[in-house]
């Protein structure tokens, strides 16, 4: 695959991740609206809506992981050591989040069917960290990378600032708090294939 093809694929992955995350977030909100604060995870985990929401989140997280590589490669020449360290932290943080999404999609429903009482056990804390709470690790891991992206000035300042602000807001464990981060990811993805001209302009102005 050519570099331009890689960047277009990464851009598409980021846009699709934004769509999938947003739909999953709205499904999560509908579950909370139906169940209330004292929701029953045993009942929720056996529902088709939970499985579909978890599957969408798993797909979105995987796409985000691939898109992250494209974002970094495009700005690797200007983001320096901070960008590299931020990329590593964001990559492994996202990978851990995807692992949790996989657990929510496949392990939690099986436990709810085969051993539902275990979901009430304190040892099942990992199985209980489902959206909107399990995204906090990803948001936290993207903070340093967002700062490096803003400093590199390869992407427009609008999506770069929104990526940073969105990562901070996404740390709030409240439904819809992650929407700014999703929007930033999609916005950066739209600029990814043509970010070279933006980077050239930024360097010209700084010179």
From the alpha-carbon coordinates, what is the Rg to the nearest angstrom?
A: 18 Å
Strand fraction: under 5%
Question: What is the number of beta strands?
Answer: 0
| Count, helices | 9
How far apart are the termini?
Answer: 33 Å
What is the mean predicted local confidence, pLDDT?
A: 83
Q: What sequence of helices (H) and strands (E) makes up the elements?
A: HHHHHHHHH
Instruction: Give the class from helix and strand content and strand pairing.
Output: mainly alpha
Helix content: over 70%
Low-confidence stretches: 197-207
- Assign an overall shape: elongated
Largest sheet: none
Question: How is this structure best described in words?
Answer:
- This protein has helices at 3-35, 41-45, 48-114, 125-128, 136-141, 143-152, 157-169, 179-191, 195-206.
- The protein is built from nine helices and no strands.
- The chain is elongated and about 50 Å long.
- 79% of the residues lie in helices and 0% in strands.
- Mean pLDDT is 83; it is low at 197-207.
- α7 (157-169) runs antiparallel to α8 (179-191).
- It has 207 residues and is mostly helical.
